[in-house]
């Protein structure tokens, strides 16, 4: 395995994946190098030192470029204008970032990287410390700013406005108090914080982002009435979560926003509906949001137009889905029935126009599928791994229809496939 690299002095770019998965222990970056591309030194798990001199003309350090390294400190010359906060993703050894004070884009205070005027916290080194008080000047926590860090306790400033996507993913946060000043939180901001047991939402929030708090260790969550939207997978895979209290202000719930075994309650004037099967809908039951109780069969009301993503995901006891006559169903979103390994009986209504990615992925007992004339798209991997699927038939479509790549991959029993004349594209 490659362990020693001497780069030429006239080198200008270290390309994507150039020295990934090697055993390099230290490396000197020549002064003429302008760009360190994505993944260029990833998974050099014994890489301890990287030398960048003050005379370097380096301008870009890109995403995952030093992923899984053991580097403890890095210097940014005055020419660096782009630094990806996830350049050190999954590395927990970085303690300090230093920067030439003449750099017009970045500044450093106490080993932490900010933009020049310190209104954006760009990167908190993963091993810098377990507690931190964000300076009052900071208005925004940047994308992946604390990702994979050892931080356990954080105090936000009172004027913070934005917490960008994936900014605290995989950290050791235990308690979280979001200031009332925060109005924007990005996707996955606190995902995979497996020590997080308490969350206090700020009054300025109107939505909880997709993947926002996956894998947290909370047991109960009461959503405040300033929240109107909860995104897809917001509290998915929270193993200890047993109770969710929703306000009447909620108007939109994403797919798999909670685990499927939680007790969900909401006031009578909420814009939600829960039937005797413990299926959660919007108020007029046009959107089937998720199923909150495992069973072997379900009956879908004729009012349902959309089955949300992951609505029945991995319900391994489910054998049958029945649709009421006169159904209005048009869309089955991604992962809707993924992993329903015993699902053998489902007559897909002829009104359905589109199937999301992996919507029936690994439904190993599904034997036949008939598509109606309204069909416009079957997304990638839709029926992949349906090993008992032997017959697939299409009506003559009213308009052109697209079948995306791997839609029927791994359907090892498929013997008969009858295609419509209006199928305009089949991706490989």
UniProtKB/TrEMBL annotation:
What the entry lists under InterPro entries is as follows:
LRR_5, LRR_dom_sf, Surface_bspA-like
Q: Which SUPFAM superfamilies match?
A: L domain-like
Q: Which domain of life is it from?
A: Eukaryota
This chain's protein is named Surface antigen BspA-like
Could you read off the lineage of the organism from its UniProt record? Eukaryota, Metamonada, Parabasalia, Trichomonadida, Trichomonadidae
């Amino acid at each position: 395995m490659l362990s020693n690299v001497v780069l030429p002095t006239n080198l200008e770019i270290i390309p994507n994946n150039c020295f990934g998965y090697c055993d390099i222990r230290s490396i000197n970056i020549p002064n003429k190098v302008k760009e360190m591309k994505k993944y260029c030194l990833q998974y050099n798990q014994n890489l301890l030192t990287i030398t960048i001199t003050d005379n370097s003309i380096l301008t870009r350090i890109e995403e995952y470029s030093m992923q899984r390294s053991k580097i403890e400190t890095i210097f940014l010359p005055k020419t660096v204008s782009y630094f990806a906060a996830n350049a050190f993703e999954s590395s927990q050894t970085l303690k300090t970032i230093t920067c030439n004070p003449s750099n017009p884009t970045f500044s450093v205070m106490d080993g932490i990287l900010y933009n020049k005027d310190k209104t954006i916290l760009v990167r908190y080194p993963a091993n810098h410390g377990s507690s931190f008080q964000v300076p009052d000047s900071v208005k925004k926590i940047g994308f992946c700013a604390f990702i994979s860090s050892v931080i356990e306790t954080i105090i936000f400033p009172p004027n913070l406005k934005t917490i960008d996507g994936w900014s605290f993913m995989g950290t050791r946060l235990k308690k979280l108090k979001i200031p009332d000043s925060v109005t924007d939180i990005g996707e996955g901001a606190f995902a995979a914080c497996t020590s997080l047991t308490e969350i206090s939402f700020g009054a300025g929030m109107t939505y909880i982002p997709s993947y926002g708090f996956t894998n947290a260790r909370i047991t109960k969550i009461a959503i405040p009435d300033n929240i109107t939207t909860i995104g897809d997978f917001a509290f998915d895979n929270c193993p200890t979560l047993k109770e969710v209290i929703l306000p009447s202000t909620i108007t939109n719930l994403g797919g798999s926003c909670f685990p499927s075994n939680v007790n969900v309650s909401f006031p009578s004037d909420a814009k939600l509906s829960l039937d005797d099967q413990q299926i959660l809908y919007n108020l007029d039951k046009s959107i089937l949001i998720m199923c909150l109780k495992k069973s072997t069969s379900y009956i879908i009301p004729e009012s349902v137009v959309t089955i949300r993503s992951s609505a029945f995901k991995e319900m391994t006891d489910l054998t049958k889905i029945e649709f009421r006559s006169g159904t209005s169903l048009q869309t089955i979103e991604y992962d809707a029935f993924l992993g329903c390994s015993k699902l053998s009986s489902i007559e897909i209504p002829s009104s359905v126009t589109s199937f999301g990615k992996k919507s029936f992925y690994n439904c190993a007992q599904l034997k036949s599928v008939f598509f109606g004339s309204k069909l416009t798209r079957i997304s990638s991997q839709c029926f992949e791994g349906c090993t008992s699927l032997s017959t697939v038939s299409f009506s003559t479509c009213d308009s052109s229809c697209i079948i995306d790549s791997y839609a029927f991959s791994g359907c090892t029993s498929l013997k008969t496939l009858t295609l419509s004349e209006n199928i305009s594209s089949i991706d490989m």
